């Protein structure tokens, strides 16, 4: 199989500012152009978007025909179909509804249709998905959502417009094909006010004069108990089909294990997380030929996947598998993490350092044919369960069964996978959604930085550095201190939270304080734009971007910004960053699972950024001119430590 190539470098012709470097990308495919509304020459198209405005420095496209029957502008307000570029169900909804002349006529005559890309405007998506989730509506939240801001009675609120890809038309039209609002306008308006009031009440998380919430220990125990009750003992995971990877849950279980190591619950949490990660990696949800993970499994066994690949899944799963390696020492997990990064470096990386959003689930089985779900991975029919690769037995069991050495089996397996990989290159590639999202790029910076630090591989850390440089060069406005969600759109709260987390992880991996300085500046901007000074917590959108929405929601990912006060301690390494003894102490720390730690390298320079921010660092000295570690907790530091083995013992206590 191919290995990671060198990280992307700056190319000639690249310009500073927010525009991407000039040049064609695989993401600007015919599918993007065919789906776009006809645009004037004064509004250039983004590389991977769908008709959105852009300030990227890219060539202005020619006018192209609009394949969609429905004429709808991007979001301002009014009825909204919410989907995204690489979703199979969104393609079905487009084909069965938006290209159907009869449905197009009905929507154009009786509705105001507005398209939303949920990745460009996650705040819009979140409001309407929150309504779907809290309203008790039947169905799956991962289908395309089509909701009106003036809600009607429950059955008419949500649908994919045809029975083939969602709900039949009778759900939202009267038997004579008239919209409900024509006959029930007063009722709809009344229900609209009630629903909006209910959403506003539910979104209010301010404590006000109420009693304090349960402690963190109580809440984490409740979460563990709920996960334990829903755990799939045989295949791992926490739900029936469809099954999603949910790496955040797995990282929570590792954290829970660490704080309950001596209890039965702690052992149970570790076992649940490790078993789930192993079953996913052995299942068809993992692409064993090209690496990376698909969006979700359509069955309980992790066998038949939904074939799109999302950047944020790759990023978070990379961290989860790296954590599993730290905890277990089993190289199975580190190999999976490296495979994910190999896929991202090859398929989702911009030549100047950024990361693309996703690869589509659909592609033509052969050139010139109609796109089909999973055709790139399994052109003969993925739903028959005959051609999706899974791992049934370990290398050791397979070697014993056939009387071979383990390394011989490994060589044969890798040779077969390489042949399959080369054969796959001759098929039409899936559409690449080449949008650059700040939040997801921040997650991917974390993925490369954390794994590179854990494995001691500078090459992986260099990818994280390139990604962070791309963010700063193309998606950060120096004058205002603001991030842009994409290179052509406004920012959201999760952009800051995930980019800040990525920069903190990159600082700990590289020990370059410039990343820490930028993280602090972004955190200040996030506090200014999103912090609720009256009720506490962070909104997920700026006030000006939220105009036109019925409410501003507060988002769980922004709690990442609140983790620092609850860190598990500070570890200070005093030494020359390039010296072997300093690197040995740093690698000792990176090899151990310590969530929410603060790792600082003090080089002894009193004028450095860290020394100015943390004056106490000047009191910590090297012992006998050797690199020296201090473990600090509860405002006190340990005795100086110079040997990695002694530091490891202390950190394991």
UniProtKB/TrEMBL annotation:
It comes from the Eukaryota. Residues 23-36 have a biased composition (Basic and acidic residues). Residues 9-19 have a biased composition (Basic residues). Residues 1-74 are annotated as: Disordered. GO terms for biological process: carbohydrate metabolic process; cell differentiation; spermatogenesis. The keyword Kinase does not apply. The keyword Plastid does not apply. Residues 52-63 have a biased composition (Polar residues). This is Spermatogenesis-associated protein 20.
């Amino acid at each position: 199989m191919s290995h990671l190539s060198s990280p992307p470098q700056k190319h000639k012709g690249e310009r500073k500012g927010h525009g991407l470097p000039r040049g064609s990308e695989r993401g600007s495919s015919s599918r993007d152009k065919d789906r776009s509304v006809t645009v004037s020459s004064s509004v250039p198209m983004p590389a991977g978007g769908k008709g959105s405005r852009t300030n990227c420095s890219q060539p202005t496209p020619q006018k192209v025909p609009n394949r969609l029957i429905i004429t709808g502008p991007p979001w301002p307000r009014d009825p909204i179909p919410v989907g995204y570029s690489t979703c199979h169900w969104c393609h079905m909804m487009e084909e069965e509804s938006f290209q159907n002349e009869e449905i197009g006529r009905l929507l154009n005559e009786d509705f105001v249709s507005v398209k939303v890309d949920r990745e460009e405007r996650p705040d819009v998506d979140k409001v309407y998905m929150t309504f779907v989730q809290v309203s008790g509506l039947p169905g799956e939240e991962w289908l395309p959502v089509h909701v009106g801001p003036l809600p009607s009675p429950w059955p008419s609120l949500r649908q994919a417009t045809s029975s083939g890809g969602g709900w039949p038309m009778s759900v939202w039209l009267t038997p004579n094909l008239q919209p409900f609002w024509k006959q029930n306008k007063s009722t709809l308006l009344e229900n609209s006010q009630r629903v909006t009031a209910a959403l506003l009440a539910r979104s209010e998380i301010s404590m006000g004069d109420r009693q304090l919430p349960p402690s963190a220990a109580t809440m984490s125990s409740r979460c563990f108990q709920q996960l334990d009750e829903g755990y799939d003992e045989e295949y791992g995971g926490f739900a029936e089909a469809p099954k999603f990877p949910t790496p955040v849950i797995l990282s929570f279980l590792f954290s829970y294990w660490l704080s309950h190591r001596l209890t039965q619950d702690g052992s149970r949490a570790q076992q649940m997380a490790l078993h789930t990660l192993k079953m996913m990696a052995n299942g068809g949800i993992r692409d064993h030929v090209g690496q990376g993970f698909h969006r979700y499994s359509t069955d309980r066994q992790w066998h038949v996947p939904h074939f799109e690949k999302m950047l944020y899944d790759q990023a978070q799963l990379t961290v989860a598998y790296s954590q599993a390696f730290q905890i277990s020492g089993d190289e199975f997990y580190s190999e999976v993490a490296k495979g994910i990064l190999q896929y991202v470096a090859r398929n989702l990386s911009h030549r100047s350092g950024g990361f693309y959003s996703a690869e589509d689930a659909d592609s033509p089985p052969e050139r010139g044919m109609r796109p089909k779900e999973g055709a790139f991975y399994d052109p003969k029919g993925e739903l028959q369960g005959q051609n999706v690769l899974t791992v049934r037995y370990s290398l050791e069991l397979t070697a014993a069964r056939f009387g071979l050495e383990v390394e011989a089996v490994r060589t044969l397996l890798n040779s077969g996978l390489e042949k399959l990989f080369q054969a796959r290159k001759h098929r039409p590639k899936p559409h690449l959604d080449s949008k650059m999202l700040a939040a997801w790029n921040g997650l991917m910076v974390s993925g490369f930085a954390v794994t590179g630090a854990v494995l001691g591989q500078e090459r992986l850390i260099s990818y994280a550095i390139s990604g962070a440089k791309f963010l700063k060069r193309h998606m950060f406005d120096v004058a205002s201190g603001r991030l842009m969600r994409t290179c052509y759109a406004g920012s959201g709260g999760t952009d800051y939270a995930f980019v800040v987390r990525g920069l903190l992880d990159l600082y700990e991996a590289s020990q370059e304080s410039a990343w820490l300085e930028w993280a602090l500046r972004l955190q200040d901007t996030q506090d200014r734009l999103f912090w609720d000074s009256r009720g506490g917590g962070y909104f997920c959108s700026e006030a000006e971007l939220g105009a036109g929405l019925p409410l501003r929601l507060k988002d769980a990912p922004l709690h990442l910004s609140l983790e620092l006060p609850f860190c598990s301690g500070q570890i200070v390494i005093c030494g020359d960053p390039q010296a072997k003894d300093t690197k040995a102490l740093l690698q000792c720390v990176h090899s151990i699972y310590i969530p929410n730690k603060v790792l600082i390298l003090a080089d002894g320079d009193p004028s450095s950024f860290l020394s100015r921010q943390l004056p106490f660092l000047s009191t910590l000295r090297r012992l006998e001119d050797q690199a020296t570690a201090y473990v600090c907790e509860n405002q006190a530091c340990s005795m100086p430590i110079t040997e990695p083995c002694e530091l490891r013992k202390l950190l394991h206590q």
